[in-house]
Structures are given as C-alpha cells and as structure tokens.
Amino acid sequence: MAGLGPFGPAPSLAIGVSGGPHSLALSLLAAEWTAARGGRVLALVADHGLRAGSDAEAQGVIARLGALGIPARLLSLGLLAGPALHERAREARLSALAQAAEAEGTPWLLLGHHRADQAETLAFRALRGSGEAGLAGMAPARPAGGVLILRPLLRALPGAIEAFLAARGLEPLRDPSNDDPRFARARLRRALGDPDGPGQAALAEAAEAFALRRKRLRGAVAARLAEAARFEPEGWARLDRRALGQDGVAEAALSALLRTLGGAVHPPGRAAVAALLARGAGSLGGVLWRGGLIGREPARCAGPLPARPGTLWDGRWRVISAPDGAWVGAWGGQEGERGGGRGTLPAFVAAGLPALRDGSGRLLSLPVRDGGAVLEFRPVSGPIA
C-alpha cells in the first residue's frame, strides 16, 4: 500500500473479490493491513449471472471469506449474453463495485490486477491502435465516481501470488472463461506465454514508461483546459476553439472533455476525436459541440431510474437525496412545467439535465434550480484531466 495513500487512521477499504487467486490474496493482505491500523474491509463479490451455478459459486466465495474473517456482500449483475461479452462484463462489474463501495462508505476500492494483467492490457490496447494514454495501461490509483480505485498488486508476479496462497493452504477458484479461446483476451494471454517471463516483464515496464508520459500530458491538458474551457455546474462547458488549438494536447483535452461530459468510463477513439477537433463542431461519444458550447447530447441520455441516495444516472449525476418512490431521468427542458425553467441555459444542455420526479411525474428538483443539494454532477470518470 506504500505510495497509494495517505489513508489516515482506521481506514475503510472495499475489495473486489472473484475468488480467484489474485483477488483472494489481495483480500487477505488488505484485511491484515487494515486490522493493524484499526480499520475495516468489505469484500464485494460480483455475480454476472452468465453461467449456470454462478450464484452458488458467488455465495461459496462469500462463505469462504467469512471463514477467513472477512465480511462480504454479493452484487448480482444479471448481465445478458451477447457481443463483446468480456468487455461489457468488465465495465458492468467495475461500475457495480464502485457504486457499492461508495454506498458502503468505503472510499477506497482495491482490485487485484498484477504485473501480467498490466502487460496484457498494454498488448491488447496496442493491437487496437491505442495512443500513448491507452498504452500507459492501468493506473495504480485512479478516481471512479466517489471512490478511488487502488491496485496494490500491479507490480506483483502471478507466481508470487500463487505461492502466497499455497503457503496459507488456500486453493483459489479458477474461471474457465479466462482460458476460453472464443475470447480475444484469452487468446492474447496464451500468445504472451509465461506470465512471469521476460516478455511480459518488458511489456509491464513499457506501460510504466508510457504512464510517466501520460502524467506529463495530463499536466499539459489541465493547463490547456484552464485557458480554453469554462466549466458550468450543470455539467457543460464553454469552449474557445482558438485557445484549445489543434495539436496533440488539444486532442487529449477534447478527449477528456468528451469522456467526462458524456459520462463515459473511456473516451472515444483517437481518430474520431482528431476528426472532431479538425471540424470544430459536431457530436461524438454522446456529447454535442456547437457554437462554442459543449455538453451532453440529449438524445443519448440514459433512461429513467428509481432515485435513491447514491444512484448514478447517465454516468454523470449522483442522487444526493430523494423521497421514496422518486425517479430520475432527462428533464427535456420543458419551460412551461411548474417548478421548471432553464433560465439562460442553452436549450440542448437543459434538455439533458436530470430531473427528479415523484411517482406521479411531478417535478421535484432540477440542478439549475436547486444546485447540488439533491442532484450533483459527479461523472463516473472522475476529474476531467
């Protein structure tokens, strides 16, 4: 955990646990680390619901953690089979883990990625044409909504993790999909060979080098956005195209804007971002840029959801407080609605604002009217740069 803090006294940590070797080892190490500091841990076990018996398997993981003195909670995702299954499962799992960690009051969410995972991530992104930011791989620490994701094992060898569990007399679960050649990541994993070998070590070292370059780029992006953009509390911005520029920093700055204002975990592809930058207007990634204004494209907003404290709507807005039976969805910018009124907001921004309503559909709250007391702009991607 050195270098990932500070944590303060009695830290509260959440851990994403599948029951596999790396998350199981992490849960043990984190439990011992927090116990020595008077803190607490909570294991979060996600069941995707994709395999027969997965629910019983998840309950078995929870029982095993309980026997080790680690409290755990089940997250049932109910994911549907279909294209890009691994990618969709990974995103759904991460979103559910982050939301659960925040709801439980555990501001740090630990994940068990190790050195071979980092090498695999770099190789996978390189094959997909990622730029420098993507080739930096997974960050040891990054914000996700209201929590900070930490990866304490990112430099650990898979073999060392297996040896740690063997010394404790623990046999982890093995996910058969990790070796299923139907999935691209499984095929890549096989092609990369020995997870503790020199080839994967070189890839992991390359990811660290790209991470240093990403850190420098983020500083430049923050400076450029300070010059070119003025952010508004309703989750949009005024963007000066001339101040933004046309160089690589401008491309990275626009990419960060698209990710944050669109409520996305990842930005659109580089080529698409570069094309939008050259045009100076248009829509991409659910974000509309026109007339010096940039914000969420109303037609791409998420559907309505039951509103409970902690609910994240459209990847951008967090419900702070809500009465029973309330729901949140896109407002639509209806000027004549009682309690509404967009004031000086651009029409497309107002249309994409979240509206809190009661069971009868009566408007209860709008960010433009009530500030951040009920609905707060807190995108899943975290800080913009």
From TrEMBL:
User: GO molecular-function annotation terms?
Assistant: ATP binding; tRNA(Ile)-lysidine synthase activity
Keyword terms of this UniProt record? ATP-binding, Cytoplasm, Ligase, Nucleotide-binding, tRNA processing
UniProt key word Transferase: no
Q: What is its EC number?
A: 6.3.4.19
What are the subcellular locations of this protein? Cytoplasm
Q: Does the keyword ATP-binding apply?
A: yes
The UniProt catalytic activity note for this protein reads: cytidine(34) in tRNA(Ile2) + L-lysine + ATP = lysidine(34) in tRNA(Ile2) + AMP + diphosphate + H(+)
What biological process terms from GO does the record include?
tRNA modification
Q: What Gene3D superfamilies is this protein classified in?
A: HUPs
Spell out the PANTHER family in the cross-references. TRNA(ILE)-LYSIDINE SYNTHASE-RELATED
The protein's job, in short, is: Ligates lysine onto the cytidine present at position 34 of the AUA codon-specific tRNA(Ile) that contains the anticodon CAU, in an ATP-dependent manner. Cytidine is converted to lysidine, thus changing the amino acid specificity of the tRNA from methionine to isoleucine.
Q: Which NCBIfam families match?
A: lysidine_TilS_N (TIGR02432)
Q: Family per UniProt?
A: Belongs to the tRNA(Ile)-lysidine synthase family.
Q: What is this protein called?
A: tRNA(Ile)-lysidine synthase
Please report the organism this UniProt entry assigns to the protein: Muricoccus roseus
